[in-house]
Amino acid sequence: MASTTSTHESLSAVSTSLAPAAIGPYSQAIKVGDLLFCSGCIPLDPATMEIVEGGVEAQTTQVLKNLKAVVEAGGSELGKVAKTTVFLKSMNDFVAVNAIYAKFFGNHAPARSAVEVARLPKDVLVEIECIASLK
Q1: Fold for the domain defined by 11-133
Q2: Using CA atoms, how far apart are residues 88 and 94, in angstroms rounded to an integer?
Q3: For the chain, which residues make up each domain, given as ranges?
Q4: Residue 32: DSSP 8-state
């Protein structure tokens, strides 16, 4: 049975070609009120939709470039990110991911959770999602 659910008028979807297109039935981000909820970003090159070459450092860099593009397309900026969630294939990569994460966010330190998970989409090493303010 097909659902007839439509997006409520209080929500607006965000889409940008500067980040990978959604690979499932979801939006890159959703705006509601003064908040922007960004879907998890994985290390796909938006031009090719292929996973970037290299290890966790290259993947984390691409993930954060993608997240930044979605945040900005949604009308916010990295300095307005309130919360991130970092999903890691291996907690052994925490230090490497943390170093690149710190470079992207600079002096801004959003609230954050970091968890090791059994598997990520396309078997990538890292995925990051966030909630940002639109004010």
Answers
A1: 60s Ribosomal Protein L30; Chain: A; (3.30.1330)
A2: 8
A3: 11-133
A4: E
Tell me if residue 55 falls in helix, strand or coil.
coil
- 37 exposed, middle or buried (CB, 10 Å; 0-12, 13-18, 19+)? middle
Q: By three-state DSSP, how is residue 37 classified?
A: strand
At 4 the pLDDT is 85
Length of the chain (residues)? 135
Which stretches of the chain drop beneath a pLDDT of 70? Answer: 1
Q: What's the burial of 57, exposed, middle or buried (CB within 10 Å: 0-12/13-18/19+)?
A: middle
- What are 106's two structure tokens? 């600079």
- The reply to whether the predicted model has a pTM over 0.90 is yes
Strands 126-133 and 81-88: antiparallel
> What's at 59, amino acid-wise?
Q
Position 14: which residue type?
Answer: V
In this predicted structure, what is the pLDDT of residue 91?
98
Q: Give the rounded distance of the alpha carbon of 111 from its chain centre.
A: 15
> Are 35 and 132 in contact, with CB atoms under 8 Å apart?
yes
